[in-house]
Design a protein that fits this description.
single chain, 236 residues, alpha/beta, Rossmann fold, seven-stranded parallel beta sheet, 17% strand, globular, binds magnesium ion, binds zinc ion
């Protein structure tokens, strides 16, 4: 007999994720969950993304770390609201933690909420936070073999950012091999090579994200338009 200890935890997570999703839809806030290893440059990538999109969207960040508030302080110093979640040892964020963080934010004043998950390539993949998209960041120094070793996160991500791309010549990173394995795991996710600290390549990523946000908005506008249509049809 096999007991799946993760089943009740995931079922509970799904309940809060559904509630989060309803809150985000009601406030028309697009929510992005960013996943990566420690040191891949999640916070720097989020700062670069903020710089690229802050004229267009009102942005806030939820920072997930096992301990410390260093990353949230970096975001706040950039003039953007940030909430730090300390998981106290847990290696991923769960949807109820997001809910508590969201309760401290004014969703009506936001267009885009970026979640920086705990640095980990394994379990954050399995936890739905109620987000619209999960995006994965790999940095060049981590090596091109990571998609082979951690296939689930690459299969799950809607887009893959290849950060620290400016160090490509220093590391033995086979970009063609990397892209081929990512494509095999995930037929649709685009790969965005960029350097978050230099700012190079950020525009293409930010343009993709803006298009994804606008697509979501158009979809929800269509849905409410359809609802209105139904009401009108019922009324006549
Ligand atoms: Mg960070
Ligand atoms: Zn975990």
């Amino acid at each position: 007999m096999k007991i799946d200890v993760s089943a009740p935890i995931l079922a509970r997570n799904e309940r809060f994720a559904a509630e989060n999703r309803a809150l985000f839809a009601e406030a028309d806030v697009f929510v992005l969950d960013m996943l990566a290893s420690p040191g891949a440059g999640k916070t720097s990538t989020i700062l670069a993304t903020i710089d690229a999109l802050r004229d267009r969207y009102r942005i806030a960040v939820i920072e997930g770390d096992i301990a410390s508030s260093v990353d949230a302080e970096r975001i706040k110093a950039h003039g953007v609201p940030a909430v730090q979640i300390n998981t106290g040892g847990a290696c991923h964020l769960e949807s109820d933690m997001i809910r508590r963080a969201v309760d401290t934010l004014d969703l009506a004043e936001l267009d885009l909420l970026i979640i920086e998950n705990v640095g980990n390539l394994v379990c954050p993949t399995d936890f739905d936070l109620g987000e619209h998209a999960k995006v994965m960041i790999l940095s060049v120094p981590e090596g091109h073999d990571k998609p082979c070793k951690y296939p689930n996160i690459f299969a799950r991500a809607e887009a893959v950012i290849l950060n620290k791309y400016d160090t490509l010549s220093v590391f033995d990173f086979d970009e063609a091999e990397f892209r081929e394995v990512v494509r095999r795991l995930n037929a649709t996710a685009p790969v965005f090579p960029l350097s978050a600290t230099l700012g190079s390549g950020v525009d293409a990523w930010a343009a993709w994200l803006a298009e994804r946000i606008e697509g979501e908005r158009a979809g929800s506008a269509d849905a409410s338009h359809t609802d209105t249509g139904t009401e009108a049809a019922n009324g006549s």
